[in-house]
Amino acid sequence: MRGPEGFLLCSLLLVAPHYTEVAADEVQPDPKTPCANWMGGAPGYPGHNGLPGRDGKDGKDGQKGEKGEEGVQGPKGDQGAIGIPGQEGPRGFPGQPGQKGEKGEGSFIYRSAFSVGLTERVPHPNVPIRFSKIFYNEQSHYDASTGKFVCSIPGTYYFAYHLTVYLSDVKVSLYKKGKAVIFTYDQFQKNNVDQASGSILLHLSAGDDVWLQVYGEGDNNGVYADNINDSTFMGFLLYPDLDAH
């Protein structure tokens, strides 16, 4: 077919598919609208929760966090057991001297002492030697007129004598309450000056007397004294009987 009729037919054939496609698009209804070709039901209720799933695997450790703030101090704990003693430390420096203490009782309160010397050259035998040269007799417990020491404070005493020996032998004894306690003998050497001495500790009660005398009938009476040679007798209280005061 040629001519105008053929040209028109060809044009209709080319346009017809386009309109057919458009019509098809317009004819298809939305299946969810009331105008759909099928009838939709009402929405259903939500289903029940399913069972919990199994625990998953532990994740990897995270990075170390920053240091937190210091907490409140807790209560004091119980005392622990005593530990083993440590090693001895170095010795410290000497401390400062302490304060002077109060004056205590003793010889300052209970004092008794004497120290005397001989003035006559040859004392009489069998009687107390009278030492009349007084070196010390502050308490007057030694009586120079009798040659005896008389105890006024009960306690322990120390007595001693140092005698110059000249012209003859010497034998003396120290007496306590009329009884010889110790003896001292020295043999004189011609053309020489010798020494004889003795000492003793005695406990005395109040009123006890102590003295020194030449022992015998006078054959051993070489006790001597002059301006350069002395014969001395002494004694003093070591400590008193405190229970007696």
What topology emerges from the helices and strands here?
Layout (H helix, E strand, L loop, with lengths): L3 H24 L85 E5 L15 E4 L5 E2 L4 E3 L4 E22 L2 E8 L7 E11 L4 E6 L6 E4 L7 E9 L5
Antiparallel strand pairs: 1-2, 1-10, 3-4, 4-8, 5-6, 5-7, 5-8, 5-9, 5-10
Mean pLDDT over the full residue set = 81
- Which percent range fits the helix content? under 10%
Major sheet attributes:
10 strands, antiparallel
Structural class comes to: mainly beta
Order of helices and strands: HEEEEEEEEEE
Please report which band the strand proportion falls in: under 5%, 5-15%, 15-25%, 25-35%, 35-45% or over 45%. 25-35%
Low-confidence stretches: 18-26
Computed over alpha carbons, the radius of gyration is: 69 Å
Discrete helix count: 1
Shape: rod-shaped
Distance between the termini: 177 Å
- Give the strand tally: 10
Report on the structure:
This protein is mainly β and 245 residues long. The chain has one helix and ten strands. Strands 1, 2, 3, 4, 5, 6, 7, 8, 9 and 10 form a ten-stranded antiparallel β-sheet that branches. The radius of gyration is 69 Å and the shape is rod-shaped.
Question: In brief, what are we looking at here?
Answer:
By secondary structure, the chain is mainly beta.
Features:
245 residues, 10-stranded antiparallel sheet, rod-shaped, mainly beta
